[in-house]
Amino acid sequence: MRWIRWQDVVSILFGSFILAAGFYHIHAQNNLAEGGFIGIALLVQQVFHISPSITTLLLDLPLIALGAKLLGKRLAYKTVLGAVSFSLFYALMEHYSPFQINLSQYLLPAAMAGGLTIGIGLGLILRCGGATGGDDILSLLLSRLSRMSVGKIYLIFDALVLVLSLVYLSWHQVIYTMVSVAVCAYTTDYVISYNKKTETAYA
């Protein structure tokens, strides 16, 4: 843990809190889906009634181990911090948050607000060389191999997961979720690159 600066710890924790708030208070409460492992976790919740706070950790563990081998222990430590803190914040909000943000009749503003919030949280975590879980590590690896931006890879991966979400969502909800994913991808790239090159964030 000596490799992790306290500034990075604060950024990861703050980013995880924003991320969990966006997923729970906007997406989950307004029946919007999500891409990546969160989208898979939401699908599992609909079918098996298992909290995303549990499913995401189970999905993350194998890729966190892979990331430690290929990208270094520093990223693995930060990913564990991001994954565990996200799951903890989500579980706490799920059980104790008194806030209800009902935008079910205004899905376009909900999608844009969700994408912006999630993109900020994710960008803060990735900016300091961290990750929230296995899908982040997968995106970082694919970004290095393909030279595509992290945000674009997220967009492609998320679109594939959203197709699966049609099992429990309508086309109407999926289309608005895709708007959220696009806003999230743009926001993530912006936050990562703001006054800081992406490459130095993962050095």
Automatic annotation (TrEMBL):
InterPro entries: UPF0750_membrane, YitT. The chain crosses the membrane at residues 9-27, 47-68, 75-93, 105-128, 149-168, 174-192. GO terms for cellular component: plasma membrane. It comes from the Bacteria. Pfam families: YitT_membrane (PF02588). Keywords: Cell membrane, Membrane, Transmembrane, Transmembrane helix. It is found in: Cell membrane. It is a multi-pass membrane protein. This is YitT family protein.
